[in-house]
């Protein structure tokens, strides 16, 4: 395979057509940069982290930097809806539930108030009146982020990719990147070709460290298999959007070690999605193999939660699908340049909460690859914060 001639060197190659790589490519092509988006699987696919019909969007975060970033994300999502002439967001509100004194619960409330996000603290009686399908225990409280809602994930991913092509970008799917040679011009070898670009963005989700190996870096990433569980309403429609049932996020309720979250019924009639915000570590290429050792058993945790907190649902999952998280130790993203190669940018570690923020993630990765300094403070997203965890792969 011969490399392309000098005249066909791209401005940027983006590896990975999940939501983060696709949004990066979209912003690059809007800036008139000649961009190639490479994806290992034929599109659309369900082997990574960006598939499925829905994701939660919210401004409610304990870290104010996410609450602030979300302000621009809402504008960019609206812009995408206009450009694609597609509805991608439905406002439902998000009900946040937690022990009254839980530090994360309290700092999330503070972040909403300090940033003047429309929100409301609810008394126990109000919760019962407004959400009769939700039963809190004594000492637990709730508040609503009114800005929150559902993003239509599959539709959004498709809209971003279609617009990228419309603005002049090229997607090559079914082409796995097998080698990266750094340099002032980066050379990328796939299973079917060799391409060159002035800069490279790696947005490979759970496969990030497999690609980083050829670039001498191993990031502290944990890839988790997530069971996406759907539960049947005992009375059809009782947890639906028409009944004003919101998305919800529970902070360590029922002594659960991780968050439990849910969305009103949408994907499957009569079923609502309720998931555990953690899973078992897995090699992304072997996601569907039977685990060799028994790990976290989250379905019984969810069943117990549902019987106590959402008693209008049957306490056995009706459908289970799969997805993957790529977690960093602090669950904040990695948005940075490769420490040794300034024209190679990494976007990774979205830790199960990156979809809503993808318009800003894409903008930041695009700016970094164009050699511009993003407006937003990148300190929380620097690779350097893991100095003690970094492994050289050389
Ligand atoms: C069950 C579940 C629920 C979630 N809920 C929410 C939510 O409610 N709200 C929210 O904001 N976020 C949520 N998230 C998180 C969000 O979906 C992810 O953060 C986001 O999709 C990550 O996107 P990505 O582009 O980084 O990864 P991916 O979507 O995995 O994209 C990476 C792509 O790179 C490709 N690739 C990898 N290696 C190569 C290679 N060598 N050559 C070519 N291509 C390659 C892969 O095939 C893949 O398509 C959820 C995630 C899951 C799994
Ligand atoms: O990011 C989100 O909003 C969801 C819900 C909380 C856990 C992860 N994803």
From TrEMBL:
Cofactor or coenzyme needed: FAD
Secretion signal, residue range per the UniProt entry: none
| GO CC, any one term | peroxisome
Record function comment: Metabolizes sarcosine, L-pipecolic acid and L-proline.
Family, according to the entry, reads as follows: Belongs to the MSOX/MTOX family.
PANTHER family with a match to the protein in the record: PEROXISOMAL SARCOSINE OXIDASE
Record-given protein name: Peroxisomal sarcosine oxidase
Task: Look up and give the organism this protein is from.
Answer: Microcaecilia unicolor
